[in-house]
Amino acid sequence: MDNNSNGHHSPSSHGHGSQGTAKISKKIRIRVRRQDGPDKLPYWQEFEIPYVSGHNVLSALMEIRKNPVTINGEKVEPIIWESNCLEEVCGACSMVVNGRARQGCTALVDKLEQPIVLEPMDKFPVVRDLVVDRSRMFDNLKRIKAWIEIDGSYALGAGPRQDPAEALERYKMSTCMTCGVCLQVCPQVSVDNKFVGAAAINQARLFNSHPTGHFKADERIDALMGDGGITDCGNAQNCVEACPKHIPLTESIAEIGRQATVRAVKKWIGL
Ligand code: SF4
Ligand code: FES
Fold it and tell me: Which amino acids bring their CB within 6 angstroms of ligand 2?
């Protein structure tokens, strides 16, 4: 048996365990798929930093940035990534970590196999290194009018009453951080097609179910009935598995599909 009997995990081998004790590396090794610009070819570089417990992928990248030298001793340009909140709220640091699309800020090094392999999400155009252009996500939000119209900035009085249970359901939907993970894992999305993906469809459900947002429901559904809309969903359900916010995306897709059917029937009979 090579673990402490009390179940504690020790970050290093102290040499007084049994012969089978695994020697845990005192380094953190990170392999990064790099790209110098949108039209440049990608290439790989590997880095090593001293082991410190509690690193996440971004803090490890910050360590590398202090002295960007590869394991071959080559001094290179610092790795570029995007981040903001550092607490899985802004969605900016999405990347592919050991083959899984997720946020670098909450990818804990102690829980990752090494070398940790970092790649940019490939369903979005690469800007540089790990930074991708997520404009598509924001354009989709414009397309489906993911907002509540207000008439001016003066006091509008109390808003409509809301059922607390429904508000709670909407709260979950509202936690989307436009991170792009649901598009990255979706087989229907490619870097050059138009499918809006689960995030925008979920936002349409959120705003259509809101007592005020509901006034624009038909426009949202119309936007999702066109090219790249709801009918492009192939029901792979990868989105709901991968969403870091655990948003019930397949429920949202089903609900918007239902609303689109009702809208199509109404249009057909001239309502
Ligand atoms: S629905 Fe989930 S995976 Fe998709 S963009 Fe929003 S938070 Fe990210
Ligand atoms: S930095 Fe905001 S989600 Fe990671």
Answer: 83-86, 88-93, 103, 105
